[in-house]
Amino acid sequence: MERIEGLLGFAARAGKAVAGEQAVRTKLRYGKIHLILLAEDASKEVISYFSHKSREMGIPVICTGTKVKLGWVIGKSRRAVVGISDRQFAKSILARVREKQAME
């Protein structure tokens, strides 16, 4: 998670991160989300809904950190889901995640 924290925080400050279930659902309806980050401690319903939507829409999903950690990184209270609305931020975060996975 540490490697993507910087990018996620930067995306939030740039207004390119959408936080919270309802806000992400709304942006998904309009095709404005390019990456979904789910907290590992999110409810089964939340994980199921966003996993289904991501498969349906071809949007990558990353399960990482806790709700408290996700919220803290973007400067908000606990958040179960964060959507990235900028294609380039989404690509950069995915690249960092793949780097980390390759190193493990």
Structure description:
- With 104 residues, the chain is an alpha+beta fold.
- It has one domain: Ribosomal protein L30/S12 (60s Ribosomal Protein L30, Chain: A, 2-Layer Sandwich).
- Helix content is 57%, strand content 13%.
- It has helices at 2-13, 21-29, 44-57, 67-73, 87-103; strands spanning 17-19, 35-38, 61-63, 81-84.
- A four-stranded mixed β-sheet has the order 1-4-2-3, sandwiched between helices.
- Helix 1 (2-13) packs antiparallel against helix 5.
Instruction: State the name of the first-level CATH class.
Output: Alpha Beta
Write the H/E string, N to C: HEHEHEHEH
CATH topology: 60s Ribosomal Protein L30, Chain: A
The CATH homologous superfamily is termed Ribosomal protein L30/S12
Strand ordering within the main sheet:
1-4-2-3
In terms of topology, how is this protein built?
Elements: H1 2-13, E1 17-19, H2 21-29, E2 35-38, H3 44-57, E3 61-63, H4 67-73, E4 81-84, H5 87-103
Helix pairs in contact: 1-5
Label this structure with key terms.
alpha+beta, 104 residues, 57% helix, 60s Ribosomal Protein L30, Chain: A, single chain
Short description:
The protein is an alpha+beta fold and 104 residues long.
